[in-house]
Every structure is written in C-alpha cells, then in structure tokens.
Amino acid sequence: MDTTFPRLLLQHAAQRPAAAAMREKEYGIWQTFTWSDLARLVEHLACGLHEAGLRRGEHMIVIGANRPRLYATMLAAQSLGAIPVPLYQDAVAAECVFPITNAEVRFAFAEDQEQVDKLLEIRPQCPLLQGIWYDDPRGLRNYSEPGLASLDALAQAGEAFAARNPGFFKGEVDKAAPDEVASMFFTSGTTGNPKGVVHTHRTLLDRAKAGADFDKLTEREEVLAYLPPAWIGQNIFSYAQWLACGYVVNCPESGSTVMIDLKEIGPTYYFAPPRVFEGLLTTVMIRMEDAGALKRGMFHAFMKLARRVGPALMDHQPVGLADRLLYRLGDVMVYGPLRNNLGFSRVRVAYTAGEAIGPDLFTFYRSIGINLKQLYGSTETAVFVCLQPDDQARADTVGVPIDGVEIKVADDGEILVRSPGLLKGYYKNPQATAEVLSNDGWYHTSDAGFIDAQGHLKIIDRVKDVGRIKGGANDGAMFAPKYVENKLKFFPHIKEVVAYGDGREKVCVMINIDFEAVGNWAERRNLPYAGYTDLAQKPEVYGLVKECVEKVNADLAADDKLAGSQISRFLVLHKELDADDGELTRTNKVRRGFIAEKYQPLVDALYGGKTEQYLETQVKFEDGRTGKVSATLKIMDARTFDPVKVAA
Amino acid sequence: MNMMTDAASVLEQEQDQAPAAPARKLGEVILDVKNISLSFGGVKALTDISFDVREHEIRAIIGPNGAGKSSMLNCINGVYQPQQGSITFRGQTFSHMKSRQVAEMGIARTFQNLALFKGMSVLDNIMTGRNLRIRSNLFLQALRIGPAEREEIRHREYVERIIDFLEIQAFRKTPVGQLPYGLQKRVDLGRALAMEPQVLLLDEPMAGMNLEEKQDMCRFVLDVNDEFGTTVVLIEHDMGVVMDISDRVVVLDYGKKIGDGPPDEVRRNPDVINAYLGTAH
User: Fold this and answer.
1) Between the CA of residue A8 and those of A4, A74, A423, A483, what are the distances in Å?
2) Range A486-499 average pLDDT
3) Per-residue pLDDT at B190
4) Is there a contact between A277 and A335 (Cβ–Cβ < 8 Å)?
5) What does each C-alpha distance from A616 to A149, A541, A606, B57, B165 come to in angstroms?
6) How far is A284 from chain B (nearest CA, A)?
7) Where exactly does CATH 3.40.50.12780 map onto chain A?
8) How far apart are CA A525 and CA A243, in angstroms?
9) Would an 8 Å CB–CB cutoff place B21 in contact with chain A?
10) Which of A117, A141, A254 sits opposite B169 (nearest CB)?
C-alpha cells in the first residue's frame, strides 16, 4: 500500500464520514466515534502537539489501555511525522526508563493517574521528558507538576491553532512518505535491554493488507481491542488493519469486563493467545458440570458428535447425510447457544498464536463451528508471515506463507523469512540488527522448523535448544525437547515435562503429574493415596503416564523428521518442579540444564538402564524454610514405533 | 506526591511519616455536636460529647469496643434520640434528628453490617440511593411516560458515574449477594454516594477486609472527599488507616470524649495511649 496511516484516516473520513470508526463502552453504553469525529480530534491533537514542540522524526511515548483517544494520539503524532512508541501499560516504572532515554523522548501520552504516576516517578532519570498529557483526569486534580496537562487542554489549544492556520494539518499529512518510520515497538529481551523494532508505514500496511486479503476482511468487521496496544499483534489488529480495511474497533469498558463486552459486541474477527481459549473452555466445562442432568447429557452427547464430524465440516470435507442432519440439530440445541455465550456468534475468523496450542483445545473450538486458525509471525516481521487457510486449520502447524513472503530453512533448521514487512532495524543497535537481518534481506527468526508435505510451516523449538541424537539406532536424528515436552503436556494428567536426548543415544523424560487431575482420576477409581509423592509412584499412575508417552511416540513416528525423538524411558518425579527451588523460571518454563544437574542420579539411572533409583532432594517451603524429600523412583521403558513412511 | 501511595504507605505503620497534606481547603463548621448524652435505661452510652466537623474534612471517631462510636453516629443519623444536647447542621439546631429529615438534608451513611438488598443487582442497589431525588410518581414510573422516563435516564446516568468511579463495571448486573465482602462494602458506599450527600457517615468501612481491599477503600474515601468535596465522618478500628487519611480525630472511651485533634496530637495523648494499651495498676 503506497500510503500512510494519517492519509488513510483522512480518506475514510472523506468517504464515509458518518460511519463508525471506534466504539468505547463508558457509563454502561457503547459510545461511537465516527471517522469524521476522529479525523477532527486527530487534527486538533496534531496541531496541539506541534505547538507544544513535537517535531518530525521525534519519538513520542503512548502508554495506556485500548482507548480511542490513545489511538488518536498515535495518529496525531504520525500526522506530524513523529513516531509513536507504545509501552506496555502494566510495565513497572523502572522498565519504562530505557525506552524513554534510548529514544530521547520529550513527550508522552499517559492514559490515567496510574500511568502519570509512573512517568513522574522516573522523570529524574529521564531529564528530556518535558510534556505529559493524560486522558482520564480522575485523581489528577491536585497535581501541579510542570508539563502535565490534560489531553482536552491539548486538543483545545490545537483547535485554536488550526483555526489560525487552516491547511497546516493537511500540509503536514501530505509531507510524510510511506517509507518514513511510522512506529517503534520495544520487544522484551530475556537478557539485556529491550530492543526497539523500527517499522515504516509501508512495512506495517503491506502486511496488514496481505493478512486482510488472505481472510477477505472488509470494512464491516467488528474487532474487540483488549490486549496491550504496545504488543504488535494488537497494534496490527486494532490499528494497521483497522485503517487498511476501515472496520470498527471496539474498546472494552475495563480489563475486568472484557468477557461481558465480548458478548455484547460479538466480534467477527478475533485474536487470543491459547491461554485465553483454554480459560474459556474451562469455564464452559465447570458450568456444564454444575448444570442439570438433562442439559449435561445433551451437551456431552452433542459434543461427541461435534468432535467426530465438526472439524471435517469446517474443512469442507465430505460428511454423511445423517451426521450432517444431526450436527444441524446440535447447532440449534448446543453449539449455537454455546457460541453465543462465549461471544463468538458472529466470528468469521479467529486466530491464536504465540505458543503451541493443544490439539483437543483447538479441535473443541473448530468442532462447534468457530473458524479458529493459527498464524506465525513476530514483532520483527509485522506479524503476518504464515496463516492457515480456512479449510486447512491444524493444531500442529502454523499455516502457509502468505502473499509476498518467502521462507527458507537454514541448514541448522532455522526458519528464515523474506517479506516486505520486515523491520528496518533495531533502533540504535546496528549490531543486533546485523545478527538477525542478513545483507540479502533474510530475517533470522531463531525458530527451528520445517515445511511439511502439505506446504504448511511447522515450528518445533527455538534453534538453540534443538539437538541431535548421538549413537544408537537413531544416530544423527533431530531432537526438539520443547516439541516433545509440549506433546506430553497437552495431556490433562501431565503438568510438566523435562526431556533429554541431545548428544545421547536415546530420549528420556522426567514427568510431573498434575496433582489435581490425577488425584481426581485416582479418586474415581477408589485408589487411595497419601499425598503427591505417594500418588506419583503408584503403579496405576505409571500405567496412565505410560499410555500418554506411547501415544506421543506413535504420533512422533508418523513424523519422518522427528521419529528419532521418540521417548525410550521415563520416570515420574516425586515432587512438583517449582520456581522457588530454581527448577522453573518465574514464567514457568523448565530449566533443563539446572534440573539435569540437580537430579544427576536420576538422569544417570535413566540412561544406565536401572529400574529404580533412590533420591533425596532439598526443598524450599514458601516461608523460606528448607526440608528434605526422599523417595525411590521407578523408571519405566516405553514402547517406541518404527517410523511410518508417508506415501508422498 | 499523591494520596494513593500515601494511603498505602501508612498502612505499613510508619510512625514518623507525616499524613498527606490536604490540598483541599477546609471550610466552615458544617456539623456541630454539643453536649450529647445518651443512655439506655441505666446504661450510659454517651456522656456529654461535643465535637464539630468542618466542611470538606475527613473526621474520624475512634475508640475501643463499646466506646460509643456507633451510638454517636446513630445520634447524628437520627436513629437514636439523645436525652440531652443538640446537633447543629448548616446553622439549623436540632435536639433530635429524624432519619428521613437527615437524609433529605444531605447526610448519607453506610453500615457496619451491610444492609444491602442481596437479591438485587449492583445497579439496582445503587439506584435505590436515588430514591429521595426521584420526583415523578409511581404511576408515571410504572407506565414509563415521558417525564418519568427522562428522569430515569438522568438518574441512571448518575448511577453509572458512581459505578465508573468505584470501578465496579464488571458487576453492574450481578446480584449483590454473589459478590465478595469487599465489593459489597463498595456497593454500600456507592448507594450512599447516589444520594449526592454533603456529609457521608461511614461506619467501619474497612472492617473485615484484607490489606488490599483496605487500600482500595482508603483510596475511594480519599477520592470521594477530593472529587466531590464530600465531608466524611468515619468510624474505624484500623489505626493505620485513621491516622493516615483523617484530618482530625475524636477519641471516645466508655462513652466519654478523651481526645480530639489532628492525628499526630491524638497519638501522643496519654489518655488515648492508656485507653488503647491499658495502664499498669
């Protein structure tokens, strides 16, 4: 698209001035901003910002939740050729210091008192920061800090300026070129300082348009903006694609009302990370367990049918007439009301991304007639790299490369991407830029994966974690620990898994059972147990886990690249892996290396062919005291399968 | 710098920390209580209590169990009729108040033991607080005829502003009985605010709350006082809360006033220390 964000705004305002651009729920009612309202507000804000001293090429912070006036401020800054830098609204004050000093920010938009307090707190460390405007005046009445003013005051000043200088705004908008920098997004680095990802109008709009064309999005879509605007995904869905397509973006009343607002709006285009879908499913299941016997019976009977034929129907595959009619009945009795309850009645396209989604979870939504699909992309690629076509959605791939994208798999398995949506570079960090962006335009994703027989991209792990099996029957086979771990974790009875195999002759895993799920399972079988350690070592539980492991092996065998990653031996740990004991990171990711050291005897026993191993571990209780847990752990062999040769 | 952090920090019981300097201006005496005595049969609940409340201030009444705090509030509120003494509100002096008259004059209250309509939604509960301000009669309301409907919309808007102010949008349509205790307390405050009171009487607004709920409530009380200029009289047990958010404190013990003044002064008053910590005999 050969245009800029502000030009698109003016275009919509000229063509459809009275059409809704955004809605915001306030005082219990959805309040509408039309395209012409918005264009006028943006003009006033831009004039106000110009008068305050915001200049072309300068960065401006916006921090807050999804609000029409936050997006209007971004547009106003871009109208002047300045670069809005959205920050996460839940970031602590100290985390905002680096972006502000790094980008030499002088001006900021803060949504409310909470954000203003944060900026005022770090002001001594950010001497350049001179102007802060807030949207919600609540609690700010008695603040007398210099440079702090309301957005209303800014718009008023801008209105007066615009009256004195008609044509100024239009002139500024016309000056900007599509290849100028439009926005900068800071990515949270796990180590070191965050990096500012620089995007131009062209990179963002090109990808926004490509994604919209792929799913045939129109100006009639309804979108609920509820994830942080600083995250590029939300920015694409409720900003870049919003302006590219001209649909309506709806801002929820508050973070806690999202589910209610979702139901009221009934979006047609929806995005959520897997955990949101998981949470929704859990609520449905809990409520169904509490429902009357008749309702519950009906739900389970129709859900069984849905699991059998629903996904096939979604994928336009042939389904028998009787099943079709029964599914139609189920749609009236169960699926329709359920979709309505979840707020998905009108969803045409729903996406999930960010982490692996369990096949059961994925199938559930598709089986009740929600077009849930996966996509692949990152901040550096302006999101859209791969998308799943409507009738080819699968739980274990992330889709096909879309218009304009080239994908190449490097020798070490790393996915390389070339597309018109790639970042211009990391801000003031040529070294980091050179690391990910090669001279011939390939972006290194640091994800390992491959293109499968159907042309779908499959992501298996981070490149640095992928290893090789050494020696034994599968010498040289690829080993992707996270891929194996995730496959096991999708079983409700398994909570955490650590897989080993890099540089060894076979794959062995240590497993944590889910105490609640397995406890429940044991109670239904009248299996008595004294506690976690006791339950974990029950032969019946080992049987249960073994079944899961072998299912995973059968699954892996069907995959010619990963057949060598099948699990040979496993054990069930006697204690839960815990962040307090350093076994998990604070974001609950397993620390493979640390665990291998801590449980050295277990790893040795797994590879040494022993059938049990005594172990004593130190544990830290929540109050800081330490204690010892000891147990004799059984080790079990699992059946592996010969690789299945898929007929090409 | 701002009230919120101050409210939170004093909960940590920093003795030296000065309370938030009130940015608002305290006005004239709005409520003057003179020589109030109240007894139930032979039991003297209050003996010769006098204190005043100035406009826009936050005035706390503290004291050990059975000191007569709630009785004092009930006298102002018109629930109890004191045998002696007078209460002057905005220049008008009364020997005893009537509950409805008190409400109409602009004094609202919340209750120590919640008195909400459990089966009704949050919205409807707060709407009941508008009762005194609804002018159209039952007949017009039932038929939703012109002026009644316009009035309903106006009141509904005011209630929505309170819901927004107290950040309970997510529970607008939830029956109050299903809400956790801390939120019910907030709804109780919302209903009192719906009266657009000049003076707000809060009977132990933080009783039974956890630390986080207390911090929230502190902020709401300060915000009410700041945004609407409402005068607040509150009874509270939590000394940290009282010392932080109130401008002046009255201390009662066995129905007698043993201290009166700014928090710092009251804290140093030996009688108050005795009442709270006991004396060696």
Assistant:
1) 6, 14, 21, 42
2) 90
3) 95
4) no
5) 61, 21, 16, 63, 55
6) 19
7) 5-265
8) 57
9) no
10) A254
* Amino acid in position B43: V
CATH of range A466-637; options 3.40.1190.20, 3.30.1360.40, 3.40.630.30, 3.30.300.30: 3.30.300.30
Residues of chain A with CATH 3.30.300.30: 466-637
* Closest residue of chain B to A258, computed from CA coordinates: B170
Please name the residue of chain B whose CA is at the shortest distance from the CA of residue A139.
B223
* Contact predicate A74/A120, CB 8 Å: no
> What is the side-by-side strand order in the sheet with B256-261?
B107-109, B199-203, B231-235, B58-62, B248-253, B256-261
Q: Are A641 and A565 in contact (CB under 8 A)?
A: no
Give the integer Cα–Cα distance in Å for B156 and B134: 11
| CATH class of the A5-265 domain in this structure | alpha beta
Q: What are the φ and ψ backbone dihedral angles of A400, each rounded to 5 degrees?
A: -100, 150
Whether residues A113 and B4 touch (CB distance < 8 A) is answered with: yes
Model confidence over A417-439: pLDDT tens digits?
999 999 999 999 999 999 999 99
Q: What Cα–Cα distance (Å) separates residue B212 from each residue in A70, A89, B183, B193, B240?
A: 29, 21, 12, 22, 14
Question: How far apart are the C-alpha atoms of A117 and A139, rounded to whole Å?
Answer: 11
**What would the DSSP string read from start to end of A77-119?**
HHHTT-EEEEE-TTS-HHHHHHHHHHTT--EEEE-SHHHHHHH
Distance in angstroms (rounded) separating the CA atoms of residues B220 and B3? 10
CB contact under 8 A, A260 and B167: no
Nearest to A50 by CA among A126, A160, A137, A127: A160
Q: Between A and B, how many CB-CB pairs are < 8 A?
A: 44
Find the DSSP H helices in A315-452: 321-330, 336-342, 359-367, 430-436
pTM: 0.85
Beta bridge partners of B202: B234
Structure tokens at B235: 């009874």
Give counts: helices (H), strands (E), chain A: 23, 28
Per-residue pLDDT of chain B (281 residues; tens, 9 = 90+): 344 434 333 333 333 333 444 445 688 899 999 999 999 988 889 999 999 999 999 999 998 888 889 899 999 988 899 999 999 998 888 887 788 888 889 999 998 878 899 999 999 999 999 988 887 777 777 777 778 888 889 999 999 999 999 999 999 999 999 999 889 999 999 999 999 999 999 999 988 888 888 989 999 999 899 888 899 999 987 878 888 899 999 999 888 999 999 998 988 888 888 887 665 55
Smallest CA–CA separation between B238 and chain A, in Å?
Answer: 24
Edge-first strand listing for the sheet containing A443-451:
A406-409, A414-418, A443-451, A457-462
Secondary structure in 3-state letters for A108-166: EEECCHHHHHHHHHCHHHCCCCCEEEECCCCCCCCCCCCCEEEHHHHHHHHHHHHHHCC
Q: Does A31 touch chain B (CB under 8 A)?
A: no
Contacts of B126 (CB under 8 A, 6+ apart): B159, B162, B163, B187, B190, B191, B193, B194
Q: Which of B167, B154, B238 is nearest to B196 (CA)?
A: B154
Chosen CATH of A379-463 out of 2.30.38.10, 3.30.390.50, 3.30.450.40, 3.40.190.10: 2.30.38.10
Among left, alpha and beta (phi > 0; psi -120 to 50; other), residue A70 is alpha
Closest CA to A270 of A146, A401, A375: A375
Question: In chain B, what is the greatest distance between 2 CA atoms, to the nearest angstrom?
Answer: 72
Torsion sign over Cα A19, A21, A23, A24? negative
